[in-house]
Amino acid sequence: MSDEEDAAAVDALKSAGIDDAEIEAAIAAIRVQKDLPRPSYPMLPNLSADAPMSAKVAAVQGYIEKLSYNFTGVDYFDVRKHRAVSKILDTGRTITRQALPIKCVEAVFLAMYLTQGLKEIERVPFSFRSQVSGVTYKHIVLAIKHNNKWGSVGLSRRRELYYKDLVYDSLAELLLEYKRSYERVFHTLRRVKVGLPLPHEQNPGEVICWCYVSVKCVDVANATQALADHGRSTHKLGEKWRLECKKAKELGAPPPLPPYQQKKLAAQKARDEGKANDRVESDSSEEERAAADVAEADAAEQAAGATAETPADAVHNAADKMAAIRAEDAQPNRPSFMAV
Q1: Which of 67, 131, 243, 326 registers the highest number of CB atoms within 10 A of its CB?
Q2: Is residue 282 among the annotated active site residues?
Q3: Do residues 138 and 156 touch, judged by C-beta distance below 8 A?
């Protein structure tokens, strides 16, 4: 085993609650065995060869599948999405060197790294939220557009839920195909989120817009229309996003919020203002209103003591909200949905 493999194995065992002495003993027992077969490393796809783009995308998918799905419950790599593009590409490179099992997020990082030189394609994050038997699952793939045809690459427990050939005429058609795929494995697709094209160039500190459009799949007509419109304008929206991010960086400000998050903030602000107006316009006396405010503050304090307050609940302006989202994503052990 190499030093990198040793470190990954030790981290995984520590995360499983095994102490250092047991880990050292297990590693020593393995090292003394001379007849152990050397683990196989899949060969990287040759994407510089003269071949159709569909064949290159299929080669990327084939490489991802050779790493196999990670069923251990332990993450071998950094799965935080809200990092600089360069850091995510570094994670993709590390995956190729260690060749350990991965999940859907690492598969997207790896696909991004492998296709970084294929400037003829657009790569867009495509996230799903589904339910089965009352349990919510989340999943992500990398949607790919070439010559106005859409497909996707990724990894999942179910093959139906990641790889799609470059044959779909729009992002809406790709969504409908995924909806049918989820139904075949008895899942109900609840929501999809689509980001902006990933950059092929590395700019210092540049981040990825993982979710620009968020639609509920209950209303299929509205969902498909929104994704069809987004799919046609992803390139222009991506250029606009990068320009806005560049301006924000020059001003020392965080990247702009996507439209769906701006709508959520505006709706929350309207609800807060409505509650405030209700209190002002009530018929109660000043003493009654003061007593109500004290009671409301006491109740909020008690609730804060019983339940940990999330960063998103504690901030209201756009800049602080994005910072809170990224801080939450940086926590390795934060609660999450189950991955498909």
Answers
A1: 67
A2: no
A3: no
Structural domain spans, the chain: 1-39, 43-256+332-339, 262-294+311-329
Does residue 230 carry a catalytic annotation? no
Read off the tokens for 106. 């690492």
What backbone torsions phi and psi does residue 190 show, to the nearest 5 degrees?
A: -100, -45
Tell me the C-alpha distance between 174 and 152, whole Å: 9
Q: Quote the tokens at residue 27.
A: 């590693």
CB distance 122 to 53 below 8 Å: no
271-315 tens-digit pLDDT: 887 777 665 554 445 555 555 565 555 555 555 444 444 444 443
Question: pLDDT above 70 covers what percent of the chain?
Answer: 75
The catalytically annotated residue of 127, 130, 152, 156 is: 156
101: left (phi over 0), alpha (psi -120 to 50) or beta: beta
The predicted model scores a pTM of 0.72
Measured between alpha carbons, how far apart are the two ends of the chain, in Å?
Answer: 31
